[in-house]
Write a structure and sequence with these properties.
Helix 4 (98-121) runs parallel beside helix 7, helix 5 (127-136) packs parallel to helix 19 and helix 17 runs antiparallel to helix 18 (375-387). This protein has helices at residues 3-39, 46-61, 81-92, 98-121, 127-136, 138-142, 149-167, 178-193, 199-217, 222-236, 240-250, 266-269, 276-282, 289-292, 296-305, 310-330, 341-359, 375-387, 393-420, 427-435; strands spanning 67-72, 75-78. A two-stranded antiparallel sheet has the order 1-2. It is built from 20 helices and two strands.
Length: 451
């Protein structure tokens, strides 16, 4: 008998189990943190309340939600998805928090998928940083934890871009089978199509993917179209009733009118501070100001009311300004970069160029949230840029400090929002609207809304 050897084997077998339990516990904490932050986030602003009203109206009246979020006066996104994403959780559990649980479950699952994917592509980058950053970054906390239509775009955009990267030869890493990648792209495209007009950004990527697949696989590439169609049918079936009821022209909800030449955006998209390139890089940076207040006066008021957060705000704000500059400088780096760097290096500016071109044909101004759908591209590019830095222990320590400070700051921001703008400012009114199945108690839909 060898009791020493047996004990060593037992100890070795328990280590993976302990790591899995620790990982599960950390993920559970991350989910609860994100859920808590979402519940404390803005609820009473017009956009948030209107999106909630779409689902609440479906819950209260059981009338099919043929149209989703408002784009402009008299313009709505077609499809029932938004109404169902808010209304079905209320049917399952008639409490104001129910839709928050679903949006957090969807975004959390999407971010976990993307964290796994990025970690596999970049094995040198510490997994704790990839997972920690994606789950606590300003953009994924402030847009994907509370009920507003861009929040629901994130999980679909991750599915789409993982699929697109895995179907184009230049960026393929062999991590997702071709059939699943195509299924994901089709599903994601029709999902976003019912939530936000940024779905048009995905079309050129889809076209490029199909071109390369057909060129590479010949007749076999036709199977890609089949899987793509299957995925589109899964989510696109919620669009069909709208077009059947309103026809091809009426079923668009007037959204086609938003695509119009607007060359006045030319100087705006190229603005070095507020243009598309800077805003795109800020998606993967610690952007702070826009989530603290709408203007300087509101941001200063926030700091005066929360003086203990001021040092964190100054530190994180400075990091958020330096990160985009560093991402531009690292674009020129050649040595020591990870595999796949040349392709990802060009993917980012090509995405920016596409966005700049599209805004010349959009009545919308180039605001960051309007192309939140490209977050996965910006994040992947940033991870590739940071990869070589983690060889230095000092950069790993700095990254850990950044994540910790970010979590602490967002906890403080959540406490502030809880008192001022969250659901809990007047939860009783929302619960009354649910109990009485009378969405008018919460508010009225915008004039001209089709649903």
């Amino acid at each position: 008998m060898n009791p020493t050897g047996t004990a060593a084997q037992d100890a070795g077998s328990t280590r993976p189990k302990a790591r899995r339990r620790l990982l599960a516990a950390l993920l559970a904490c991350a989910f609860l943190f994100r859920l808590g932050f979402g519940l404390c986030s803005q609820f009473w602003a017009d956009d948030e309340r209107q999106v909630y009203l779409i689902g609440l109206k479906f819950y209260a009246t059981r009338a099919w939600p043929y149209f989703g979020p408002d784009v402009a006066s008299g313009v709505q996104v077609p499809g029932a998805l938004q109404g169902l994403l808010v209304g079905l959780p209320l049917l399952a559990a008639p409490f104001p928090e129910s839709p928050f649980l679903l949006v957090n479950a969807l975004s959390f699952a999407g971010l976990c998928l993307f964290a796994w994917y990025c970690s596999r592509r970049l094995p040198r980058t510490p997994r704790w940083f990839v997972w920690g950053w994606l789950l606590t970054a300003p953009w994924t906390l402030n847009f994907s934890t509370h009920v507003v239509n861009p929040s629901y775009v994130l999980p679909a955009s991750i599915l789409f871009f993982v699929g697109a990267l895995e179907t184009m030869p230049a960026t393929r890493a062999g991590l997702v089978p071709a059939w699943l990648a195509n299924l994901s792209m089709g599903f994601a495209l029709c999902w976003v199509m019912q939530l936000h007009l940024s779905w048009v950004v995905l079309v050129p990527f889809l076209a490029a993917s199909l071109f390369f697949q057909l060129r590479e696989g010949g007749a076999r590439g036709l199977a890609s179209c089949g899987w793509l169609a299957c995925g589109a049918a899964l989510s696109g079936c919620l669009l069909a009733p709208t077009f059947l009821a309103y026809g091809l022209s009426g079923g668009t909800g007037g959204s086609e009118g938003m695509l119009t030449p607007n060359f006045g955006n030319f100087l705006r998209v190229l603005n070095p501070v507020e243009g598309v390139p800077a805003r795109f890089l800020s998606l993967a940076s610690f952007e702070l100001a826009r989530f603290v207040g709408r203007n300087t006066a509101e941001r200063l008021a926030f700091l005066r009311e929360n003086l203990w957060l001021a040092p964190l705000a100054l530190f994180l704000g400075a990091v958020g300004l330096l990160q985009p500059a560093a991402l531009v400088a690292l674009w020129f780096k050649r040595r020591g970069m990870p595999d796949g760097w040349p392709q990802v290096r060009w993917l980012a500016p090509l995405t920016v160029a596409l966005l700049c071109a599209l805004f010349l044909f959009s009545s919308k101004l180039p605001a960051s949230h309007t192309f939140y759908v490209t977050f996965p591209v910006a994040a992947l590019y940033a991870f590739y840029c940071w990869d070589s830095l983690f060889a230095d222990a000092r950069w790993r320590q700095a990254a850990a400090v950044l994540l910790a400070c970010g979590v602490l700051f967002h906890a403080g921001l959540a406490l502030h929002n809880l008192r001022h703008v969250s659901l809990y400012v007047d939860r009783r009114a929302v619960q009354a609207a649910i109990d009485e199945k009378n969405y008018h108690i919460l508010g009225e839909r915008r004039p001209g809304s089709r649903y």
